[in-house]
């Protein structure tokens, strides 16, 4: 066999043995290898955004998994509503089909069999009234079912999302520019918010309290210590093209502490039940 040993400058000069085709000769082999490298480079460039999107989707689905695992923390009607929120979220994201009853209702709304039609103002007024009712419904339902409320040691209000719908409402609708936003680092979990007034001091005890909650309501619930980032709520933005509840903030604006999940007030309540 004919071959040549060359240095790989992309791997610190590692020696690589390349087989040569006697028919093509050295120049022909070099041209063929160059074409192949260009083809592989284009393929890598095309695959990179697909991998990034797949990783983002995996993170999102892991957050849904956490919400489902922790839905058992709520009993009765509240637990059922949390599960319904997750179901609706997955339907909206096209991860699952709507129940047959909802699909049939959608067909009626679009003008299928059984559609109520009419001309003039009398037929339009009920429809407008229905739209106004629907517009006010989701936010109110989210506020009731999607968010937990706690009192920090200093008496400040702490809010924690129950699922992605609640997280989104908490972070982008309820949070003010003065609040502190918490989330476990590098793992799916709930958004947590420490409500503050302008210029209000933050006690270390309160930060630890919220960090413990953020760690408890996360994938790292069963760990001893979990890293928790906290940042001014005004720095938190929806992730571009991301799913519900996915956010980002400018690196360097956050601080990091460690939450103790089993020391959180939520864990204490759970043990007392």
From TrEMBL:
Q: Name one GO biological process term.
A: rescue of stalled ribosome
Region ranges (Disordered): 101-147
Q: Which residues form the NFACT RNA-binding domain?
A: 150-241
Pfam families found in the cross-reference section: NFACT-R_1, NFACT_N
What GO annotations for molecular function exist for this entry?
A: ribosomal large subunit binding; tRNA binding
Q: InterPro entries from the xrefs?
A: NFACT_RNA-bd, RQC_Subunit_NEMF
Q: Which PANTHER family match?
A: NUCLEAR EXPORT MEDIATOR FACTOR NEMF (PTHR15239), RIBOSOME QUALITY CONTROL COMPLEX SUBUNIT NEMF (PTHR15239:SF6)
Q: What is this protein called?
A: NFACT RNA-binding domain-containing protein
Organism of origin: Cymbomonas tetramitiformis
């Amino acid at each position: 066999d004919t071959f040549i040993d060359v240095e790989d400058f992309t791997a610190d000069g590692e020696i690589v043995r390349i087989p040569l085709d006697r028919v093509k000769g050295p120049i022909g082999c070099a041209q063929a290898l160059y074409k192949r490298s260009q083809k592989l480079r284009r393929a890598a460039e095309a695959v990179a955004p697909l991998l990034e999107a797949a990783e983002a989707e995996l993170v999102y689905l892991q957050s849904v998994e956490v919400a489902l695992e922790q839905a058992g923390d709520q009993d009765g009607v509240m637990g059922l509503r949390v599960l319904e929120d997750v179901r609706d979220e997955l339907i909206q994201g096209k991860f699952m089909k709507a129940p047959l009853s909802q699909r049939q209702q959608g067909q009626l709304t679009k003008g299928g069999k059984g559609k109520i039609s009419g001309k003039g103002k009398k037929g339009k007024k009920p429809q407008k009234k229905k739209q106004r009712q629907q517009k006010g419904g989701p936010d109110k339902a989210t506020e009731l079912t999607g968010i937990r409320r706690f009192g920090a040691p200093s008496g400040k209000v702490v809010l924690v999302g129950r699922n992605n719908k609640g997280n989104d409402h908490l972070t982008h609708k309820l949070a003010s520019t003065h609040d502190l936003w918490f989330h476990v680092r590098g793992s799916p979990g709930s958004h947590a918010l420490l409500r503050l007034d302008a210029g209000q001091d933050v006690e270390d005890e309160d930060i630890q309290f919220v960090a413990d909650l953020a760690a408890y309501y996360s994938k790292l619930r069963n760990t001893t210590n979990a890293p928790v980032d906290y940042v001014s709520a005004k720095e938190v933005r929806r992730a571009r093209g991301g799913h519900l509840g996915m956010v980002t903030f400018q690196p360097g604006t956050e601080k990091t502490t460690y939450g103790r999940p089993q020391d959180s007030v939520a864990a204490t309540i759970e043990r007392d039940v």
